[in-house]
Amino acid sequence: METxxxxxxxxxxxxxxxxxxxxxxxxxxTTKAKTATVLSIDGGGIRGIIPGTIxxxxxxxxxxxxxxxxxxxxxxxxxxxxxxxxLVTAMLTVPDKDNRPLFAATxxxxxxxxxxxxxxxxxxxxxxxxxYDGKYLRSxxxxxxxxxxxxxxxxxxxxPTFDIKLLQPTMFSTSDGEVSTSKNALLADVCIATFSNxxxxxxxxxxTKFEDGKTRSFNLIDGxxxxxxxxxxxxxxxxxxxxxxxxxxxxxKPMDTTKxxxxxxGTGTAKFEEKYNASMAxxxxxxxxxxxxxxxxxxxxxxxxxxxxxxxFQSLGAEKNYLRIQENNLVADTTSGDLxxxxxxxxxxxxxxxxxxxxxxxxxxxxGAYEPVEKGGTNSDALIRFAKLLSDERKxxxxx
Length: 400
Hints:
This is Patatin. The protein is an alpha/beta fold. It is built from 13 helices and 12 strands.
């Protein structure tokens, strides 16, 4: 409980600082609502098939309630994704010529199955530099997303990247794109950047313009350097937008988690195997530390946001408003982020389907293990409940 208290306090203090310095951004339309809604999608390369499967299920349930044209973007105020999750976010929110979502949720896994083997070609691995040249990834993302800019997404989007030249996180959001031309990058460029895991794919360079015409340059790599799990990024962004007046809710205040619904989708983690211990680590050279450091960072970057958000919602009595769906028992080939063989992709899709029937689980902040929630039902039960809440909220907004 002491750990939970510290984590919640740190988040509260960070948000309090945000509230003190926030100002209303000009020129952004307000959104009236009674419940704020957030969707977050982890990074994980080809394992994006797992959340793709979950999203297809959720959209099918929304369509049962609201008709066949219902799309995920119609129901969420903020969608955030890192790396492969950034690509999923873009696909869900990029508009077609009629200003409706260009892709359905069922198109996500189709994209991976059709393009994954060419994004991560197993027979064309580079011996020097990044494992893959990234040429096909850049081509297919530009072809899929076209010339849509950040300020044109169908709902508020926030995508983390990391600027390797400045050594600092760089976030791209719809609202930033609306108020600053230098942050109004092409959605395709942002997706390529957040997908660019530096061991797999080249860093991505592009330029934008400031209002005075001067050039702004970006030297970006994978958003997973910032947050493999961007749930906390998304929630903080939502609170920022509320304070600035960009979301006008009937009776929601910042930090009021009882009136915020958050769905966080993971891409799976390896089975807990106790790979390392203090005795082993005490003997490692600097070279020996490379893989353990990567493993440790990846695990903490995915787990810490979940622990903090879980603690926040529990402390404020709103634990049912936060749903994290994550498979924490991946083994063998399924742990890979780039093994895009037909067999492995089908296995990942099967894992997503089986995950729907698993019990709702919540992370234990002391052990890091996911534990079934008593009387929580299955993940599919929870998603059906979320679909009803999302549908009801949309009807309220339409009535207003």
